[in-house]
């Protein structure tokens, strides 16, 4: 039994370390699967050539590098708490000839090391729920934006239930539950996380940030953002067992961190069981489904 709950700083340390080990594979996969979502984020941001842009939780630079091409006469700063991801991003920036426009820095998103009103635009894709205190991170985003500065963040999640996308997703989910009950469909990441529990690799406090009970739109308005809007974009991939495994242990933070705490033999046994079960699903004519989507929130600092 654990003697005490880990502090949020332990979550940050473990999360960063898990990304350090996965940086190269993360870079390959994020270019392949998250490119359309990054493009939507930048479309909503309406970047201008002279903008000063901050990308929070930049990873290996997917958003920041594209932003640097649009803000070619401005400045782009990407921050992350994974040194391995930042090294990968810096190498890509130099190779792309963007080293004069973009810089990458190790930094805590909840304590930004920039003066007030330093940026025209703040961007963040799939990072907000990695922070132990999302509200503190949003306050910092607001603080470093100039008046009329623009914020666009994307977080993982489904569409609004009453939207056209929400109705379509609900209909699909109902049919997929039937297929799953018949052993002909598995979805990420629920399948892997459940299997980890069966292998004695259950969740622990340090595998999850504290999170916030507040809805994001409500959070942005409370901090002082105006003209808050949202839109959803998503897709799904049907994969083979190896791809299904690689995507989840790279992108799913809780799974990646649980694996980091397991020994090599336990990791190997889990993967072998995972691949075998996935092949059994496919042998029945079933599918391995990896959904990838984001709800985008945009707002303006008054």
Detail the topology: elements first, then pairings.
Elements: H1 8-33, H2 35-45, E1 52-56, H3 62-70, E2 75-80, H4 83-95, E3 102-106, E4 119-125, H5 134-144, E5 145-155, H6 164-181, E6 185-187, H7 190-198, H8 216-223, E7 225-238, H9 241-251, H10 253-260, H11 264-283, E8 287-301
Parallel strand pairs: 1-2, 1-4, 2-3, 4-5, 6-8
Antiparallel strand pairs: 5-8, 7-8
Helix pairs in contact: 1-4, 1-9, 1-10, 2-3, 9-10
- Topology, number of strands: 8
Distance between the termini: 49 Å
User: Can you tell me the CATH superfamily?
Assistant: Vaccinia Virus protein VP39
- Determine Rg (CA atoms, Å): 20 Å
| Poorly predicted segments | 1-8
Beta strand %: 15-25%
Q: Mean pLDDT, as a whole number?
A: 91
Task: Please state the second-level CATH architecture.
Answer: 3-Layer(aba) Sandwich
CATH level-3 fold name = Rossmann fold
Order of helices and strands: HHEHEHEEHEHEHHEHHHE
What's the structural domain tally?
1
Specify the overall morphology.
globular
Task: State the helical fraction.
Answer: 40-55%
Q: Give the C-level CATH assignment.
A: Alpha Beta
What is the makeup of the main sheet?
Answer: 8 strands, mixed
Summing up helix and strand content along with how strands pair, one would put the structural category as alpha/beta
Q: What is the count of helical runs?
A: 11
């Amino acid at each position: 039994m654990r003697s005490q709950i880990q502090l949020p700083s332990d979550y940050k340390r473990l999360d960063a370390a898990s990304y350090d080990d996965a940086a190269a594979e993360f870079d390959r996969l994020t270019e392949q699967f998250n490119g359309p979502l990054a493009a939507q984020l930048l479309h909503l941001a309406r970047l201008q050539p002279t903008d000063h842009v901050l990308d929070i939780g930049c990873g290996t630079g997917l958003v920041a590098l594209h932003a640097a091409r649009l803000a070619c006469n401005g400045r782009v700063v990407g921050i992350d708490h994974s040194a391995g991801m930042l090294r990968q991003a810096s190498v890509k920036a130099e190779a792309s000839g963007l080293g004069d426009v973009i810089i990458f820095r190790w930094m805590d998103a909840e304590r930004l090391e920039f003066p007030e009103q330093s940026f025209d635009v703040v961007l963040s894709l799939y990072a907000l729920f990695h922070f132990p205190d999302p509200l503190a991170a949003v306050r910092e985003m607001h603080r470093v934006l100039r008046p009329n500065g623009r914020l666009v963040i994307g977080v993982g999640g489904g569409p609004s239930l009453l939207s056209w996308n929400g109705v379509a997703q609900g209909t699909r989910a109902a049919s997929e539950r039937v297929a799953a009950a018949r052993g002909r469909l598995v979805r990420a990441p629920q399948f892997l996380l459940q299997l980890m529990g069966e292998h004695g690799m259950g969740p622990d406090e340090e595998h999850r940030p504290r999170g916030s009970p507040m809805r994001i739109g409500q959070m942005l308005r409370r901090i002082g953002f105006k003209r808050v809007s949202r839109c959803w974009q998503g897709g799904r991939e049907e994969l083979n067992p190896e791809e299904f495994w690689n995507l989840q242990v790279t992108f799913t933070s809780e799974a990646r961190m649980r694996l980091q705490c397991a020994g090599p033999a336990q990791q190997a046994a889990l993967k072998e069981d995972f691949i075998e079960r996935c092949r059994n699903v496919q042998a029945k004519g079933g599918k391995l489904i990896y959904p990838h989507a984001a709800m985008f929130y945009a707002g303006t600092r008054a």
